[in-house]
Design goal:
- This protein is of the alpha+beta class.
- The chain has one domain: SCP2 sterol-binding domain (Nonspecific Lipid-transfer Protein, Chain A, 2-Layer Sandwich).
- The chain has a five-stranded mixed β-sheet.
- The protein is globular.
């Protein structure tokens, strides 16, 4: 994979959006994150990196629950498909993950079929259920070491298998 080329392309798009934002009344859309504007991207990246900094020097506070829940949904709708495509991830074999938020109403049922990442109805059968606060789910999906705070039921091998199906960039 051409990581340098990918990041150069993202950096150029980010710079163009930032320049547009400087002269606009409303924040511009982020082309690689449908439904988000530049301020959404900065907020989401900022909360994760704030957590990283706090965690490095002591005990990190949880992410804002509403922002974290939004980040979980964005991960499945945008980031997972993009990461799978860019990293040329192995084809899904119908693996079904249920991510259940314990501090709010959201549940995300995610299925990997071939090249696609699908959001299914939460009532469908699943191979693994991963439950936690919106903060812990978002941090897990951002590959932070919080798995010990999650309640995992079902095929435990799929916990690490998620990052085979959705490789980091």
């Amino acid at each position: 994979m051409d990581y340098a080329g990918h990041f150069q392309q993202e950096a150029a798009a980010f710079e163009a959006a930032a320049r547009q934002a400087a002269g606009a009344e409303a924040a511009p859309a982020v082309p690689s994150c449908p439904g988000w504007v530049l301020t959404d991207l900065v907020l989401h990246l900022g909360i994760v990196h704030r957590w990283d900094a706090e965690n490095a020097v002591g005990t990190a506070r949880p992410l804002d629950a509403a922002l974290a829940a939004d980040a979980v949904g964005q991960t499945f709708e945008v980031m997972a498909p993009m990461r799978r495509a860019v990293a040329k991830a192995p084809r899904g074999q119908g693996e079904r993950f249920l991510f259940r938020r314990t501090d709010g109403p959201q549940t995300w049922a995610v299925r990997f079929d071939g090249e696609s990442v699908r959001l299914d109805a939460p009532g469908e059968p699943h191979d693994i259920q991963i439950s936690g606060t919106a903060s812990d789910l978002a941090l897990f999906l951002w590959q932070r070491k919080v798995a010990d705070r999650l309640d995992v039921q079902g095929d435990i091998s799929l916990l690490s298998g998620y990052f085979v199906l959705v490789p980091p960039l």
